[in-house]
Design brief:
The chain folds into two domains: 343 residues, no CATH class; 43 residues. Helix content is 70%, strand content 1%. It has 17 helices and two strands. It has a two-stranded antiparallel ribbon with strand order 1-2. The radius of gyration is 21 Å and the shape is globular. The model has no long low-confidence stretch (mean pLDDT 88). Keywords: Membrane, Transmembrane, Transmembrane helix.
Length: 420
């Protein structure tokens, strides 16, 4: 369970540091607007996304079991975070995240990191697509500039409320959102090594400001972002509160573990390396505890940002630490500038994130799987969107393991790790 940082330091060179520094700065430019957008979509203020990327991202790189993992807030948490805040308030989320961190520490010490192999692939695919659907639906209000206050958290009531607000659509906001989408897709395809989100969102936001377009910005909705990290603080703790939030804590811990380990697997294939799963789980535990104490959100390994780090030349955990420090410096020196980011542009960024999460290039392959796997994927997807993430994970994993035990008697082929 030795952190990868300690493994890489004895042979670390100036050339490696230069490559890591460039990669860290590059991925920070991607992480800043995405962290802000994820925090807003989660039902909290944008500063908490930056805090998570700084504190959680630094700890994950410092203590993690992957050479190139980049940590921070991710889209997978939006659904559960929004629900916890809506039901228990932000203090409830902080306590649930602290509990999740403790659960992850226990899991790491018990060396259960390798148990990811027992989570059925169809369940992972189903709730990932379902989360993408929920994230996308939550961006329609800002993307189209709809006037719809206090949207319900549930999918169907939310769609109904948005439909009733259709007469308030802001076509200027729609144009800004569409322009952001085109820029994000175009920059990704034409210049894959360039941190497209920061350029696309900055360009659209500057044009909107210069032309005085009537669209919401971060400043108009949330005020000026803070330029320093908050002082660490503990939430109010009681036995009743702990029991009330325990299910949410287990969901946060499960998502943090599975997404970070899947991300580490992807990174291994990109750099031909090998991560340490139990060290990674331990790092997720400490990162979530630290993020909660500083007033952040749940943190985990971010697949897209990790891939960006590798493509930009990052090869050791120092790149992830540079990424976190860069975000802190930007926050300290340029926090007011982030207030000009246009809300439709941030919504467009999350729409792209939701689309990428659903991995449409794999849909044809999913449909060629055995009937039981297809039904399990669809069931998990439907439960994620229409019921509850906790229910979806519990039912999906339980049913998936039952099917695997049944198929084991038929000498079914060995389960393989999803290629993400």
């Amino acid at each position: 369970m030795k952190p990868k940082l300690l493994t890489t330091l004895p042979t670390y060179t100036g050339g490696l540091f230069l490559a890591d520094a460039i990669a860290g700065i590059t991925v920070a430019m991607v992480a800043i607007p995405l962290s802000i957008a994820i925090a807003i979509a989660s039902g909290t203020d944008p500063a908490k996304g930056l805090i998570t990327a700084i504190v959680g991202g630094f700890v994950i790189s410092l203590l993690g079991g992957s050479r190139v993992q980049i940590g921070g807030p991710t889209g997978a948490f939006i659904v559960v975070v929004y629900g916890v805040i809506a039901q228990h308030g932000y203090d409830g989320l902080v306590l649930a995240t602290l509990m999740a961190g403790a659960i992850l520490l226990i899991a790491g010490l018990l060396r259960v990191g390798n148990l990811i192999a027992f989570v059925p692939e169809a369940v992972v695919n189903g709730f990932t697509i379902g989360i993408g659907v929920i994230i996308a639906s939550g961006q329609l209000k800002d993307f189209m500039g709809l006037q719809a206050a206090n949207l319900p958290a549930e999918f169907l009531p939310k769609m109904e409320a948005l439909w009733h607000a259709r007469a308030t659509i802001n076509w200027t906001a729609c144009a800004a959102g569409a322009a952001s989408l085109l820029l994000l897709v175009g920059l990704r395809r034409l210049f894959p090594r360039v941190p497209g989100p920061i350029f696309a969102l900055a360009l659209v936001s500057v044009v909107a400001m210069v032309l005085g377009l009537p669209i919401d910005t971060i400043f108009s909705r949330y005020g000026t972002l803070p330029s320093t990290l908050p002082v660490p603080a503990l939430p109010t703790v009681s036995f009743a509160r702990l029991m009330e939030l325990l299910p949410s804590a287990f969901v946060i811990a499960f998502l943090a573990a599975i997404e970070s380990l899947l991300s580490a697997i992807v990174a291994d294939r990109m750099i031909e390396g090998s991560h340490r799963p139990n060290a990674e789980v331990l790092a997720q535990g400490w990162a979530n505890i630290a993020s909660a104490l500083f007033g952040g959100l749940p943190a985990t390994g971010a697949i897209a940002r990790t891939a960006t780090n590798v493509r930009a030349g990052g090869r050791t955990p120092v790149a992830g630490m540079v990424h976190a420090v860069t975000i802190l410096i930007v926050m300290m020196l340029a926090a007011p500038l982030a207030g000009y980011l246009a809300m439709p542009a941030l919504a467009a960024l999350l729409l792209i994130t939701a689309w990428n999460m659903s991995e449409p290039h794999k849909w044809r392959g999913y449909w060629s799987e055995p009937l039981a796997d297809r039904l399990l994927l669809i069931l998990t997807l439907v439960l994620t969107v229409l019921a509850d993430l906790t229910v979806a994970i519990g039912v999906g994993v339980g049913l998936g393991l039952a099917l695997r035990l049944r198929d084991g008697k038929l000498n079914a082929p060995e389960w393989h790790t999803p290629d993400r």
